[in-house]
Amino acid sequence: MSERTTVRRPGIPRPRRRHRAGAEVTFDDDATLHAMGYPRKLTRRFRGFDNFAISFTIINIISGIFSAFGFGMVAGGPAILVFGWIGVSLMVLFVGAAMGEIASAYPTSGALYFSAGKLARRHRGAWSWYTGWLNFVGQIGGTAATGYAAATFIQAFVAMQWPGYTPTGQRTVLITTAILLVQALANTYTVQLVATLNRISVWWLLIGMSVIVAALALVPTRHQPASFATHFHNGTGFDCPLYAAMLGLLVTSWTFTGFDGSFHMSEETVRATVNTPKGITRAIAASAVTGLALMLALVYAIRDYSAVAGASAPPVRILVDALGTGAAKLLLLVVIGAMLFCGLANMTSNTRQIFAFARDGAMPGSRLWHSVSPRTRTPVKAVWLAAACSLLLITPAWWSHTAFTAIVSVNVVGLYLAYGAPILLRLRLGKEFRPGPWHLGRWGVPIALTAVVWIAASSVLFMLPHASPITPTTFNYAPIALAAVLAVATAWWFATARRRFQGPVSYGSPDEVAAMDLI
């Protein structure tokens, strides 16, 4: 037995529907998009696995853990790295589930800013505007940060291979530029190519993680005792161990970002009302389990704690100590590959957010950025805007690593605040919220409430000082950078935007926008 999705006019939520267990449900993706007021411009080539793959690749446990492991060794040590991973993963799963419920109701490339505009009772334009710009800044920062991390580890590999090579900030920026160029070219070509690369990336991550875990478990003749997972270490400089432990939770938060990528790809996903929320939650769950295995393998392979914690790249030092230089270099190639795949998926998600935001007239030159190539059916100009903005963000790293670190923090805070806005608005609607085919039932409100509390708490943590004594080098510039972004958005809003931007636009009735389809 099959049933067709009810189509309603934009802004009118769909009723809750129940289906017999095992019953096949057919969804008219184009009709759902038309009901929200948009014509179809993008090609639907993402299957359920492809949608899962993009968020799984952006979360990227190898990239996240290898990049943030050193901070965790200082802020809480193994106890927070292991048990903090478990606890924060659960909190992030709540965030993803709450987001998935909203994604099922509003499966558009606009994702967070679109749903914020539809869920707000008042000031819809403002809610949509701020959510969209926080999401834009977070996405740009994620693309830049991932490319920069890949460039850093590439230089670490080159230095291991050729000891005479000296990594510098200028070389890191140049390598990042080359990475962004290649990723933009890949995103320019076709959606099918990106989908294929994302499928490959899933297996690269899973097989690579398995190889690293197996090597660290089987090759070393000596491991830390089981009780080592409860070892607590405070090297932050702050006297309060609780504060250090709370900072250590950020390691997992740093890793679990970008799963809104599935949401942004919903206009290119078949059966989007179900495959999009499944992609979000499954990517988080799979990353939580596989990430815990990798975290345990690294923790128990530590030999000299002080030496590893003081190394420029602690996970690389662990690999060298446990496996030798030759094997460490091979596994470092796995890590670099994972980071490159992560950056590619980041840019894809980033591009769709730009496309959708421009489609609703919320960006300078909107007509240009939401155009779609008639040959590739991809928003090519938005791809190159994403690459250019990411390059602009990493430029300060030419002379200052501290400035770039602030941008990385803004990336995470910007994304999570953008995640929290529509979830908070969904809570405020209460029983008036009408979910799509994939919903949480009576658990929707408590899960959304937990998600909002966690987002608020983790965002505050990202703003607080991360090391003591506080100097120009250790100062956390994230509050200043985020305040600057919000100040510009606010000034722009009151100057012109509030008069012309009222939130997501409708291009007409379902029949009218259906006639505008370009595919």
TrEMBL record:
Tagged with keyword Transport: yes
Residue span of region Disordered: 1-20
A molecular function (GO) term: transmembrane transporter activity
Location, primary (coarse class): membrane
Record's bilayer topology term: Multi-pass membrane protein
Top-level taxonomic group: Bacteria
GO cellular component, one term: membrane
GO BP annotations, alphabetical order: amino acid transport
Membrane-traversing stretches: 52-74, 80-106, 127-151, 171-190, 202-221, 241-259, 280-302, 322-345, 382-399, 405-425, 445-464, 476-495
Listed PROSITE patterns: AMINO_ACID_PERMEASE_1
Location of the protein in the cell: Membrane
Swiss-Prot/TrEMBL keywords: Membrane, Transmembrane, Transmembrane helix, Transport
Keyword Membrane assigned: yes
A Pfam match: AA_permease_2
Gene3D superfamilies cross-referenced by the UniProt entry: Amino acid/polyamine transporter I
Name of the protein this chain belongs to: Putative amino acid permease
InterPro entries per record: AA/rel_permease1, Amino_acid_permease_CS
